From TrEMBL:
Protein name: LysR family transcriptional regulator
GO molecular function, one term: sequence-specific DNA binding
Signal peptide span: none
Biological classification of the source: Bacteria, Pseudomonadati, Pseudomonadota, Betaproteobacteria, Burkholderiales
Pfam families on file: LysR_substrate
Residues covered by the LysR substrate-binding domain: 91-293
Top-level taxon of origin: Bacteria
Alphabetical GO biological process terms: positive regulation of gene expression
Length: 307
């Protein structure tokens, strides 16, 4: 080991896998080698991004891109080491986009903590981020796994579909559409519409499906997050079409949820770093998440049936 890794090893609990420290040593050696190459080659414009601002960002040589990826990897290792030193080995790091991170994930964590009541509880880090940030965090090793929307590239991941649901229509209590059990495309045409951003994959599917029926939405506000659509609908700013798991979180607050007569799918991907084997704690939590998803789906069916 290099001297830096010897120091690192002395600061971490003895039960930390020594292989991780060897990886740290290799990464440090690689960075030192690249710095020597930089000095000898005197590469023009070869300056870390944090020191050079955004000037000529798109003209960076390919080697610089690889070096910056390496520094991201070093940051991930440093984060892991600090977590191990502070909380020990039994920890869980999850990244999640807001549609599932603000209501669904807390319900899952409640079940996790209840299942650990008779033994040591794992330390959990839940980071609620945009789907792109979730992907970056998982790829860099800062999360054991993540949940993200389906519009993000899955390069560097082993993605599987965690959930797929038909979208639902949301509105405030007392809205004229609330008396209907199912909403048709033409009923959305003349209403102020709370839309997800145009780049959202489910928004594009909605626009395409409505176009088949000759319907164009009258978008008054667009936003990247379904939770924002729910909040604005509660305040009477319009109606929206979102994933039902997020809508379910707001039903108890008075948000009216109705079926859409045409199917527009909302998909959630489970993202795991390519080649990574999940820990026992992560596997256990995934089983809890899948059970909670089934429970939420049943609750949603009962709500829509009673509407």
């Amino acid at each position: 080991m290099c001297s830096d890794c010897v120091k690192l090893a002395g600061s971490v609990a003895s039960n930390v896998d020594e292989r991780a420290l060897r990886d740290q040593c290799h990464a440090i050696a690689c960075v030192r080698t690249v710095r020597r190459v930089q000095g000898r080659a005197a590469m023009q414009g070869f300056t870390p991004a944090s020191k050079r601002g955004d000037l000529h960002r798109n003209r960076d040589p390919p080697l610089l891109v690889e070096v910056e990826r390496m520094f991201v990897g070093l940051g991930a290792i440093e984060h892991r080491v600090k977590s191990l030193r502070e909380f020990g080995v039994d920890q869980l790091q999850v990244a999640c986009y807001p549609a599932f991170g603000l209501g669904f994930m807390p319900r899952c964590l409640k079940q996790l903590m209840a299942s650990s009541a008779q033994g040591p509880r794992p330390h959990v880090s839940l980071q609620v981020l945009s789907s792109k940030e979730v992907k970056d965090r998982v790829v860099s090793g800062l999360a054991d796994f993540g949940l993200m929307a389906d519009e993000v590239s899955v390069d560097g991941l082993e993605p599987t579909t965690f959930a797929t649901f038909p979208g639902v229509v949301v509105m405030m209590k007392g809205h004229p559409l609330a008396r209907h059990k199912q909403i048709r495309p033409e009923q959305l045409a003349e209403l102020p519409f709370l839309a997800l951003n145009p780049e959202d994959a489910s928004r594009r599917r909605l626009d395409a499906k409505l176009a088949e029926h000759g319907v164009t939405l009258s978008v008054s506000i667009h936003t990247p997050y379904a939770v924002s659509v729910c909040e604005m609908a509660l305040h009477g700013l319009g109606v929206g079409v979102i994933n039902p798991i997020t809508a379910l979180d707001y039903a108890d607050r008075g948000l009216v949820v109705r079926k859409l007569s045409v199917e527009v799918t909302f998909s959630c991907f489970l993202a795991i770093p390519a080649g990574q084997v999940l820990s026992g704690t992560a596997k256990n939590f995934l089983a809890i998440m899948r059970a909670q998803l089934q429970a939420d789906n049943q609750k949603l069916r009962e709500y829509l049936k009673a509407a």
